[in-house]
Amino acid sequence: MNEMSHVTRRGFLAGGGAIVVAFSMHPSSAIGQEQEEPLPGSLDENPLLDSWIRINADGTVTVLTGKVELGQGIKTALVQIAAEELRVRPETIELVTADTDVTPDEGYTAGSQSMQDSGTAILNAAAQAREILIAEAAARLGVPADRLSATEGRVETSDGQGVTYGEIAGGRFLRYEALPTSPLSEPSQYTVVGKPIPRTDIPAKVSGGVAYVQDLRLPDMVHARVVRPPSHGARLRAVDVSRVEAAPGVLKIVQNGSYLGVIAEREEQAIRAMEMLAEEATWEKPETLPERDRVYSILQELPDEEKVIREGPTLESETTGDVLEATYLRPYQMHGAIGPSCAVGLSDENGMLTIWTHSQGVYPLRNSIAEMLRVPQSRVRCIHMEGSGCYGHNGADDAGADAALLAVAMPGRPVRVQWMREQEHAWEPYGSIMAMRVRARLNGDGRVGAWEFDVWSNTHSTRPGGAGLLMPAWHIDPPFIPPTPAEIPQPAGGGDRNSIPLYTFPEMRIVKHFVPTMPLRVSALRGLGAYGNVFALESFVDELAKNAGIDPVDFRLRHLEDERARDVITRCAERFGWAEADLSQGRGKGMGFARYKNLAAYAAVAVEVEVERESGGIRMIRAVAADDSGQVVNPDGIRNQIEGGIIQSASWTLFESVDFDNTGIISTDWNTYPILRFPDLFESVDVEVIDRPGAPFLGTGEAAQGPTAAAIANAVADAVGARVREIPLTPERVLAALEDES
Amino acid sequence: MVALNINGHSRDVDVAEDVPLLYVLRNDLELNGAKFGCGLAQCGACTVVVDGEAMFSCVTPVSSVEGAEIITVEGLGTERDPHPLQAAFIEEQAAQCGYCIAGMIMRAHTLLESNSSPSEDEIRQHMAPNLCRCGTHARIVRAVRRAAEMASAEEGRTPAREGADQ
After folding, report:
1. B2-75: which CATH topology?
2. Nearest CA in chain B to A205
3. A294 domain residue, yes or no
4. Residue A211 sits at the chain B interface (C-beta within 8 Å)
5. What is the CATH number of the domain that holds A339?
6. Does the pLDDT of residue B19 top 70, yes or no?
7. Which of A25, A216, A217, B74 could form a cystine bridge with A208, CB 3.0-4.6 A?
8. Chain A hits for B96, Cβ within 8 Å
């Protein structure tokens, strides 16, 4: 991508001229030109430059993206990219994120793809826009374009004669179709990309500025709360609303089938009315959930769709060498946003419905809400505003649907709905349960001869592609029924994400057992199946290394050819002081590695832990990581994501599991679903970011989750010889593993 | 009518006595800093300072703090003129989604008021009631330490800072 292209400016202008009247939200169908080569990133779906970049009359620049800020710092990184290629100062750029009336449709902000999709699109669109501005300036100035250069928002000759971007194109759309290759800057000349520019959103967030949809306060706004059924599958039998109707501030009770909500003037009035309504409602409450203790065996007994994703011989036929086998387990886990899901809806006098939402996909949400309300998509607009960090598909879209159902019941007044903590915990879709069985044959030379990996799991994505995937739509009359769960295919994969090792084992057989039946509601949680699969495979690699009597880092390296993979492992080990680490009694070190999705960022994580034999308690001492995300746009942004990924994964791995009984969820607050607190934190978390100038951007956000889980389990095994194969690594499990060893 | 003293200003609010302070701050006084996180005093997103103590505003009836000195993150400083704690959080880039951060700053504020150079362990223990889900803990600890250093560097040069306007 650092390759300089030789696109003629005439080509730009000719291509642009043909499509001036074709600008629409569906450019690919409107253009009618055959594209021989795919366009970079999301330009392929949204090829018009003015879908991405607009030059304003005052010379400032508006950059549009269909991706959203989730706390991962994407806004700052995208501004850096645009500033670099447009050759303007970052502070002259206004970035507009997902809004169905304004921005390109980039689907979901998910899968660590924003830099690859939107970042690549903006990089190329900005470079092409710059060349167009230079070409237009050349015509204006009567100077050959090759004697002009762009700098600080101005096109000029070497003697300083020039025009500003605002003078060239201010207020006019750049209705040009993007080309497959762009005149990209040389990475060695970068002045903005690669720099740790401070995040643009943090000052408002530390000083009480309006930063989140939770802070949106529209004139005449009213407050709503929803009474959820006591469990999934429960149906409303009856509700006496008379007492609630007379309660202070209550404006409206919304009942539609088993869907029950209340709108009040004030927020605390809505909450009180919700509590009263819940007392008045009686429900049919079937026992729909399995026994918690049997959940993994049920998962492996249920009918599954078996798919061999990597063909190889089964190990049963093997007769030589040592065959080792182990099974690893990952429970249901929560996104657990600190701020419960929230949305604001407004149904106006023209019948237009606007939803302010922290959804990761405003276009799919718009379409799903329109289907739920049985109105045309053109009557619904979804505007993204930040919410509390989500880490995947949580209640954001459902809250958007709540706001839609409640706002249409109270036209003319903005309706703000926020979930209660108990609702967020009980109704968000969890990260799927997983069971991984690994078998391997170790040859006498300390090498893996054959590897067999079976993973059982439910789907890892039930994001709304239709009303049937909006939870509130299940409760209205007639209800929308969720479609049969589907799996994300390889190479990204869902439950099988990262189940194929990057190691060069001579024989590999990888089988996914997709179990469509889901006792609990599940969807995408940061890393999807990669978290469980990397935990299993990187734990087992350590078990094999131990069996072979080889250092686990050496063992990994002797099975790895990918140079970038070797680099992150080697540099992580060096930074950690792996070889020379002289650990005291009860302490251990462990490493985990993965390339996320086998397509995105490379990450290796090494940790040191201390295990107390008497209690089984694990104390985290330090974590060191090396990351390779390709061309670095903002090194501190990458570091922040990897640090956060390590700490969050440590929380998942040590503490977290959703508890339930036959009728409902038991983990309904932070006491019944504890997560990491400050005293549990590592003493230090240290991240090395490896830059690859000119290499494609590789998504970073989910890279650390799996490696951290394995690194912790490996460190515990190294510390006290106890191998825990079930997440979370509770003291009870450590003690049980110690007993097994002795 | 409840008479409140918020960030150095007298504010009368016409609300029922049992309304949690959090809703009054957010909806009546239009202060966005304190956030609803759990409503159960378990996460600290709603933390404000009342008479020098960190309190969960989500479970504090407004009438119980009548006349008390209440400080929210807006009372420390502004985007343009941040308090050392806010400046330290910006310098350390100690936020990801940032939803918990105002509560973190207010809890840290009560620590630094009573202990101008807390140890790493004292910071962790003090911050324990507040949850962060993005895993920004290490940066938050660094930011609190930096704020302490900035404050002690400033000491002697300028008098203690008055609560800034909202």
Report:
1. Ubiquitin-like (UB roll) (3.10.20)
2. B98
3. no
4. yes
5. 3.30.365.10
6. yes
7. B74
8. 71-73, 389, 640-641, 644
Please answer yes or no on whether A388 and B133 come within 8 Å at the CB atom. Answer: yes
B135 interface with A at CB cutoff 8 Å: yes
Q: How many angstroms away from the CA of B19 is the closest CA of chain A?
A: 7
pLDDT tens column, A9-54: 333 333 332 222 222 223 333 344 444 689 999 999 999 999 999 9
B84-154: which CATH architecture?
A: Orthogonal Bundle (1.10)
| A410 in the same domain as A277 | yes
Give the DSSP H or E segment for A719.
helix A705-720
Residue A161 lies in a domain: yes
The answer to whether ipTM exceeds 0.90 is yes
Residue with tokens 């995105």: A600
* Number of Cβ pairs < 8 A linking chain A and chain B: 183
Measured from the Cβ of residue A22, the count of other Cβ atoms closer than 10 Å reads 16
Q: What is the pLDDT of residues A597-628, one digit of tens each?
A: 999 999 999 999 999 999 999 999 999 999 99
Q: How many residues does chain B have?
A: 166
Tell me which residue range forms the domain holding A67. Answer: 9-192
Which residues, other chains included, contact A346 with Cβ-Cβ below 8 Å and sequence gap of 6+? A218, A353, A354, A407, A413, A414, A415
**Do A541 and A520 belong to one domain?**
yes
Q: What is the pLDDT of residue A107?
A: 93
Tell me if A285 sits within 8 A of A398, measured CB to CB.
no
The Cα A49–Cα A43 span in angstroms is 8
- pLDDT per position as a tens digit, A199-223: 999 999 999 998 999 999 999 999 9
If you measure CA to CA, which chain B residue comes closest to A671?
B42
**Which chain A residues contact residue B99 at CB under 8 A?**
71, 212, 214, 337-339, 387-389
A321 pLDDT higher than 80: no
Which residues 15-34 on chain B approach chain A with CB closer than 8 angstroms? 15-16, 19-20, 23, 26-27, 30-33
Nearest to A208 among B20, B102, B138 (CB): B102
Burial class (CB in 10 A: 0-12, 13-18, 19+), A221: middle
Burial B127-156 (b: 16+ CB within 10 A, else e): bebbbbbbbbbbbbbbbbbbbbebbeeeee
Statement to judge: residues A422 and A440 lie in one domain: no
Q: How far is A387 from chain B (nearest CA, A)?
A: 8
Which pTM was predicted? 0.94
Q: Mean pLDDT over all residues of chain A?
A: 93
Please report how many Cα atoms fall inside a 13 Å half-sphere around the Cα of residue A207, on the Cβ side: 20
Tell me the pLDDT band of B163, cut-offs 50, 70 and 90: very low
How far apart are the two ends of chain B, measured CA to CA in Å? 22
pLDDT (tens digit per residue) in B42-71: 999 999 999 999 999 999 999 999 999 999
The chain-wide mean pLDDT, for chain B, equals 93
Among A2-6, A265-269, A636-640, A660-664, the minimum mean pLDDT is found in A2-6
Question: In this prediction, what percent of chain A has a pLDDT beyond 70?
Answer: 94
Whether the CB of B7 is below 8 Å from some CB of chain A: the reply is: no
E strand spans, A392-457: 415-418, 434-442, 448-457
Contact status of A219 with chain B (Cβ, < 8 Å): no
Q: Which of A27-41, A304-318, A326-340, A578-592 has the lowest mean pLDDT?
A: A27-41
Optimal mutation site among B28, B47, B111, B133, interface A, most CBs of chain A within 10 A: B133
- Half-sphere CA count of A691, side-chain side, radius 13 A: 15
Reduced to 3 states, what is the DSSP secondary structure of residue B48? strand
Question: Which residue, among B97, B127, B165, would best test binding to A if mutated, counting the most A CBs under 10 Å from its CB?
Answer: B97
Domain annotation covers residue A448: yes
Q: Chain B interface, mutation test: which of A68, A75, A206, A620, most B Cβ atoms within 10 Å?
A: A206
Tokens (6 digits) for A100 = 């169905």
